[in-house]
User: What shape does this take?
Amino acid sequence: MIFTHDTELTLRAACVLVNSDRRAADRDDLGDIAGLDDYLAEFGWTGRRDRDFAELAEVHRLRERIGRLWAAADDEERAVGQVNALLSDTKASPWLTRHAEMPEWHLHLASIHDPLARRMGAEMAMALADLIRGGELRRLKVCAAPDCDAVLFDVSRNRSKIFCDTGNCGNRQHVAAYRERRGKEG
Assistant: This one.
């Protein structure tokens, strides 16, 4: 399946959002307003910004909610229920737009004046709805490394990606398997 630019970008943003506190037990990439600013700049989020701790807390609650949705990806009915609830709670109202930083036509699903977490939640819910409608929910995965709980959005052609990009998990697992094979030979 080929995803529209905004759907893929938003799903990548959702993945990074969920992983922002899963990389290390004592580290939260969105632990402060500066971290949130960096994240928003990386993915081109526009519109209202309050830049206060209440806004940061709302984004943290959204992160938890999107993380629960990722965990429900193997149960389509449950995932659909969660996406529908998020669309409803954010009062998503789609409209086409384009602007200098993203000249391709894309959807916005909330007013630029709505709170940040509501806008983010609406756009992430719609991107997830696109994934479900396309029968591609299985592209949402949890890293297969036994010591990692990061999530990934698999855009590989054959949906074969199993390790996240956050902790060098694939490389670590391949090295461990190699060492185990070498140990059995010697």
Q: What stands out?
A: The first strand starts at residue 95 and ends at 99. The beta strands are 95-99, 102-108, 140-142, 151-153. The chain has one domain: 5-185.
